[in-house]
Amino acid sequence: MPLDWVTEGVGLDNTYGLMETYDRSIQLLYKTWQYHFEFLNLGYAAYLDFFGFLKGQFPDIPDQAIAKMVQGVDVDLFRPDDELKKLAKLAVQLDVATALRTGSVDAALAAVAQRPNGHQWLEAWKQAQDPWFNFTSGNGFYSTDKYWIEHLDIPLGYIKDYIARLEKGEAVVHRGRGVREPPAVGEGVRGHVQHAHDPGALPEDGPAPTQADGIQPPHRQRRVP
Description:
Radius of gyration: 22 Å
Strand order of the largest sheet: 1-2
Number of helices: 8
């Protein structure tokens, strides 16, 4: 601490400015979000008009086809969720879905390991974690946010939900880029992820994901390990 801070009666140590600046940064982020979502709602209104028009003119057009028309940029926002969908489909293909419903995360993974194709699924589970489980259900600003990589019950819970939907015959569609359907049993799991850009990716801000799409809320954030 500089001596003149003491002699001039500043009354604050040198950490106060750091904390004040940090708090101000957080407030500015929230302010930016306010402006962001003010204009985002206008974008959604325009998209809904566009969506309704196309559905009226072409009743059989897929929702995803309309989404591709308005995408502006490829992002990784949906990739973690897409990885969970891929793992759910692979679990059904490899007949380890029942094992994944066994108690805790450790118990479920141990049960999977006992299945004939279990190690193949576990390898895919391990590969998906880096980097796609560096993802939080919070906003990423606080130490209390739970990251998937540290709380594996969160992604496993989503996988179980997707498995239940698949077993009911519901569609579980990949919405991001770079993810393919899992291969047939025996083809292995290495090399599933395409590194080329997929033009089917959605822009970060729309169209708005819905619960029916099975997409996690867009406020979930990635962190750099």
